[in-house]
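Below is how a single chain appears once it has passed through the pipeline. First comes the sequence as given, then the structure the pipeline wrote out for it. We keep one example in the README because the format questions we get most often are answered faster by looking than by reading.
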Amino acid sequence: MGRAVTVATCALNQWALDFEGNLERISRSIDIAKSRGARYRLGPELEICGYGCSDHYYESDTLLHSFQVLAKLLESPATQDIICDVGMPVLHRNVRYNCRVIFLNKKILLIRPKISLANAGNYRELRWFTPWNKARHVEEYFLPRIIQEVTGQETVPFGDAVLATKDTCLGTEICEELWAPNSPHIEMGLDGVEIFTNSSGSHHVLRKAHTRVDLVNSATAKNGGIYILANQKGCDGDRLYYDGCAMISMNGETVAQGSQFSLDDVEVLVATLDLEDVRSYRAEISSRNLAASKVNPYPRVKVNFALSCSDDVAVPTCMPIQWRHHSPEEEISLGPACWLWDYLRRSKQAGFLLPLSGGIDSSATACIVYSMCHQVCLAVKNGNADVLADARRIVNDETYVPEDPREFCKRIFTTCYMASENSSQDTCNRAKLLAEQIGSYHINLNIDAAVKAIVGIFSMVTGRTPHFSVYGGSSRENLALQNVQARIRMVLAYLFAQLTLWTRGMPGGLLVLGSANVDESLRGYLTKYDCSSADINPIGGISKTDLKNFIQYCIENFQLTALRSIMSAPPTAELEPLVDGQVAQTDEEDMGMTYAELSIYGKLRKIAKAGPYSMFCKLINMWKEICTPREVASKVKHFFRMYSINRHKMTTLTPSYHAENYSPDDNRFDLRPFLYNTTWSWQFRCIDKQVNAL
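Resulting structure:
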């Protein structure tokens, strides 16, 4: 009959510019797809070079090495008798395009350039690529000699076309095109395309996965068809974690779901689907059929190949499934943990060091490392040879098998409580108990001698001795004395990260982990070059509210009872003197705002694009039951004053896992000045005028 088609998609943990590793993972995915009967294999966006090459896309080397990898794939016996769809940059008439290269049996069928480029938030594709603006237009592409020698082709079609096989028609979308309001699948579907493919480089954001799933399912709900989505996974060299979720959908329902978080470098989904289900679904949608009769046809590249077998009546086909989404707490437990594992193994370091204060933020970071250890042990138990090899190299033991998360944690994770005369015994005990429960190698030390030495140098040079405000000092003295403590902790963290394993007779160094949350960064409630200055920060894109919920999740799922007292304690920096042995300083009092308020300010500032006046206008309605307009005005002014005074700190912010759309990350996500007129005179005058009117 020729109606049951078997197709494969995948999620690959590619790494920018790792051409050798990327080739191996692509080849492995093709092998798996073929072994499971697939006749078409789809991979992630720009999988040959890795998505995150950034300005390396300008280099001719990136183009050259991509074609060299393509030549290897074309030559490989594994790519015979299966249509392979791979992603790479291509230079056509001196213009760089983000392309899909689709080939079969050593012949390139089509090079399809991306039409809609991602250029918002973390994405900068227009910096490196040009969109293909010639709809339904195909040109000749002259192949480089290294490809001509393999394929025997001089030119191949390049442009906006679809593939017509013996039994069906396939059309390509690339990542952003699914999210665009005029997605190509709409017109392609009307023109008779039955299978849509999408190669993505889509990163994780908390609570985002359902949006992607809904878009895929809705693409075929109105128009019918089969939709196949591939995505990158893992950390490919920067702040983003690509979260897989490869999937296959038909007629608005999911039929195959890939994992969102996994330590598997290669994950392949295969589904067998009945083309007649697409045709019968479309047959009764009269509005679709009327629109189809008027559509401009796409150029078709004829392919002498079928995705089905001639005798397939008895071939079982896949049935719809219910998509299972992770809770935000599970996402925090798994996403940053997988990101940390990729960073650790690819940086070739021997573990992590975390200054553990006994507060929520550093405890949440410790729990994420513990979750990572859980994931490693589970992957090894499930037979993942790559994870086992990486774990053995990290601990420098060729016979080691990680079976117990606490034991593995002891080998690769060092926690350090850095006490001062301003630290309470409570936080010391909390840090120690949590370290015992997760199994980390824990160090207690006191920084007072170093603080006194540095302040002593200042006093010797200037003849003046600064004092805390409780002892009569000014606010400037008070802040300077707090900052000295914080910065000494950063220096000690790096010293211990470099030498702790040496003292234990073990090779290698440790990566220093930071633990400033997204709200503190936004407000600037941190000392520049203190313990927030680390190698990487797994919670830097997560709000305090979400971290509290995550801590509760860890209490219930990891049985970390030490977290109960951490949850109940008020957040504090413990940088000012104790009063009767008790902490007098709290974060929210220091900041002049609550963490809940700060989260709202952050979302309005970034996601709602609100300046001071617009934020005031929105909040007088949101908070009308709890605040007068004058109180709202005071809060908004205080936030913007503090935000602008401290914005310079974002220029040195530790690279953080991107998890929130209101992140203040200055690297590329949230581009703002770092020298403001902090009086905001015009803006605040507009607010005052409105307050008086009200």
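The mean pLDDT is 94.

See the next section for the split statistics.
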